[in-house]
Amino acid sequence: MAENHIIFEIEEEIGTVILNRSEKGNPFDWSTIKEMEEVLYRVEHDEGIRGMILTARGEKYFCVGADIKLMESIEGKEYTEFLMAGLRMNEKIQRCRKPTIAAINGIAVGAGAEVAMSCDLRIASTNARIGVPELKIGMVPGWGGVFRLTRLVGQTKAMEMVLTAANIKAEEAKEAGLINKVVETGEVLNEARRLMKKILLNAPQSIAFAKYIIRSAPEMPFHVGENYEAMTSVLSFLSKDGKEGMEAFFQKREPTWSGR
After folding, report:
1. Residues 49/42, Cβ–Cβ less than 8 Å
2. Coil vs helix vs strand at 56
3. Which of 87, 88, 121, 85 is nearest to 103 (CA)?
4. Residues 81-116: pLDDT tens digits?
5. Concatenated DSSP letters for 111-178?
6. Which residue out of 11, 72, 114, 247 is catalytically annotated?
7. Has 191 been annotated as catalytic?
8. I need a surface site. Which of 114, 168, 203, 243 has the fewest CB within 10 A?
9. CATH number of the domain encompassing residue 138
10. Shared-domain flag, residues 100 and 159
11. Does this model's pTM top 0.70?
């Protein structure tokens, strides 16, 4: 029986996605994308899951990118299909209404860096290396990596990273704004869980609204964005959780969220 390329675990309302081929560097191939799509559908639709962490087996590799065996044999039509499948997968991660954290436990390059950048937040181990080195092999990243990297670190740093095809250390990535926090090797998943638990103290609907506002800010004219934010504030105030949050605050107790 073939081993799953992805393991999915749920604990305390947190779904943890584990890339499960550490001996090969946890690469993406067609099976990995298919399994990830199934997990993303479950995360989006299962109300018992309030947040998702993406990590990988082992302490050397998070993800080395596309599977080398696939890339050796692939031709134009299949490459285009594979590219579009990866793009759709990353878009689903980015648009997920629930919070997502990449727990980067090692080398994250190419498609590995791109899928991590699709998450809302990124925690990295001290031994992590991150980059989009596709120019070294005469190609350009194809899963939204250049675009997302520029949004995260700015044009100047993105130019440096992409054009030199360099993989940078975790601390440099943090200084650039690509990584939120760097922790010791072996602690990255624990830190991601601590951060997720802190996020999940807040109301689910408000988290979804806030995520959309932040993600949309670069595209929206200011007057459109501030009015959208005001509208979501009204909707959250009128919601069941909005009333619960206010009552809990005044009663000096912890709120109990319903997601409505």
Report:
1. yes
2. strand
3. 121
4. 988 999 999 999 999 999 999 999 999 999 999 999
5. HHHHHHHHSSEEEEETT-EEE--GGGGT----SSHHHHHHHHH-HHHHHHHHHHT--EEHHHHHHHTS
6. 114
7. no
8. 243
9. 3.90.226.10
10. yes
11. yes
